[in-house]
Amino acid sequence: MPMPAQVKDDLIEDVKITAEEIHEGRDVDADELKYTPREYQDLIVNLLATHAAGESFVLNDDVYAHWATDAPTAEDRFMVLRTIEEELMHAREGWRMLRQIDELIDYKDLVPYTASRLEGFNHRVDEWAEHAALCALTDRVGVFQQEEQLDNSYLPYAESIRTAFFPVEKGHAARGRYWLRQLVETSEGKEAAQRAINVWWPRALDMFGRSDTPRQHRFIYYRLKKRTNEERRQAYIPVITAELEAIGLTAPDSLVGRKIL
């Protein structure tokens, strides 16, 4: 799926804040983004547009939205609705930050939620245990991603990570673990939960991205991220393995079923 927003092709560079300055500790506000290198602008727009479009996958009825009515209990349905509301809040926050730099970008689509930019979210989720595993594992990926962006070099994004994204993402992952703990109380539920973990474990690991992409190093250079995709993935594996074991579940082999290495 194409990015819903990108830096204008005919934008004339007017660099007053150099790449080296940003690398060495210079932070950038929205009004200053137009004075940064095109590469930095592209990276920022990529991050913001990914939130603006990607978070809206919860509107996809095949994957997520139907659990607002199909979850097992009224409490579960309320929690799903709350998550949908919060994910759409994240999408709106992404669009708010894009509008701050409206003069720099072209828009393609507002809410292209019919297909996710992440391959894992383009699969039907018909089992409640899979929904629990999806939240417990993939939202935990978001926590690992965002934790190192709390003080990133683009000030509007850093503020949004601290106040709008990171605290809420932790809550989404906690809901998934809560549902998994409920499931493992019965032998049938535990079997369903383990099957779901086996499905969503490789998809969650794939969400960190390719280990060989050159662009990850540019994100690090500009202080938008701190670790490579593989470094974050390898940090995630033992932490989440321990969380699953505490519930009575087992993390599968971390290479089985993977599509992005």
Characteristic key phrases:
261 residues; mainly alpha; 10 helices; globular
Q: How would you describe the overall organization of this protein?
A:
- By secondary structure, this protein is mainly alpha-helical.
- Helix content is 59%, strand content 2%.
- The chain is built from ten helices and two strands.
- It has helices at residues 19-24, 38-54, 61-65, 67-70, 74-100, 128-147, 155-183, 187-206, 215-221, 229-247; strands spanning 5-7, 105-107.
- The longest helix is centred in the middle third of the chain and has 29 residues, at 155-183.
- The chain is globular, with a radius of gyration of 19 Å.
- The two termini are 20 Å apart.
- The mean pLDDT is 94.
Distance between the termini: 20 Å
What overall form do the CA principal axes indicate?
A: globular
- Our Rg estimate from Cα atoms comes to 19 Å
Strand content: under 5%
Helix-strand topology string: EHHHHHEHHHHH
**Mind summarizing the main beta sheet?**
2 strands, antiparallel
In short:
The chain is mostly helical and about 260 residues long.
Write the layout of secondary structure elements.
Blueprint: E1 5-7, H1 19-24, H2 38-54, H3 61-65, H4 67-70, H5 74-100, E2 105-107, H6 128-147, H7 155-183, H8 187-206, H9 215-221, H10 229-247
Antiparallel strand pairs: 1-2
Helix pairs in contact: 2-5, 5-7, 6-7, 6-8, 6-10
